Write the structure tokens for this entry.
Amino acid sequence: MAGDRQELLDSFYHQHGPCCAGCDWWRSLNSMAGECHAGPMVAGVDRTAPLNIHGASRAIGAGHVMTLREHVCGAFKDEFDWASLPLGYRRRIGAPLTEKGRIALATTQGRETGGGVDG
Ligand code: SF4
């Protein structure tokens, strides 16, 4: 199941471009949301604010901020070596199949130039 979730998130990232789903700082909680580990832990009441969850009936402990997979901020980082994955998997998720393709995609998305996207 975790493998299915990761494949779904990897596909989402390669179809949508820079977003939490493809960010090195992100740890998925399910196929839609996860935690951003780029910053320090915060109080429970602040963790779910980016999900527009306020006044939850169950107390949420301190931890990392939760975000939706499509969110992106200026700290986005993708240094993962996608070429290390099996070719069949890369085809399924829509990842560039060659280094040339990866550089072209990254340049188009502003990743090679450090041009982050704020959100
Ligand atoms: S894109 Fe920004 S908010 Fe999302 S996981 Fe990466 S650093 Fe965190």
About this structure: Confidence is low (pLDDT under 50) at residues 113-119. Residues 2-16 form the longest helix (15 residues).
